[in-house]
Design brief:
alpha/beta, Rossmann fold, seven-stranded parallel beta sheet, about 40% helix, globular
Amino acid sequence: MDKLSEIFSLRGKIIVITGATGLLGKKHAEIVACYGGTPVLLDLSQQKINEFVNDLNDKYQVDAVGFAIDITNERMIKDNAKHLISRFGKIDGLVNNAANNPKVESGNGDNFSRLENFPIESWHDDISVGLTGAFLCAKHYGFLISQNPEGGSIVNISSDLGLIAPDQRLYAKDGVNNDQQDVKPVTYSVVKAGLIGLTRYLATYWPDKNVRCNAICPGGVENGQPEDFLKEVNSRIPMGRMANADEYQGALLWILSSASSYLNGAIIAIDGGRSVW
């Protein structure tokens, strides 16, 4: 193995990924498997997990495993962490990817996403999944990484909207009063900004154990959005387009691997330049 391949290799690494059957979660798992790592997939549907595990193992000849786990349930996380140590003897990495991110227009028709209408139940649910879940995973899986003699890497998947405010004009519809327009929910910004704070905290918590923590702040991913929406979004991005789902894989591989062995506490925007414009 040449030097370049060696420093990016994840061979022998056990990497836990939450929200692993979602659009980006699948891409995270694929790059881990492609570079020899063992993805441990966590999500809610065991059927979807099993199908994806089989696909990964067939394509990359790895031993990916997956578990249906509610990451807001600390007992489930704690039990799974014990199981992983019993099975693999260690954990090398954690990717906190899970989050609620419904389409802006997918509400119940009464402008539920607007701040003045936003249900407290939705607030608690979104914070619980996106932020409390990441905390619980760091608490249990991160602790086990700190017990690994080689240390490891925690990656929190934040967003460009953890760095900048959402431009609500993107979601505006003609002929609708401003106070009736759908908007990006407040919880998305709060969760993604909170992950940046969690990243900085964790980066200084286990450095003596060689546990690094960094955050990726992806921009939006093109995924079948209406043409008029894409036109508006693209006009706000210096590169003139949204991302492809696989364009975050290189950064994730770098951060998980020894190629970034001195990277700690970094908040990395990968958004085509949107957050600097």
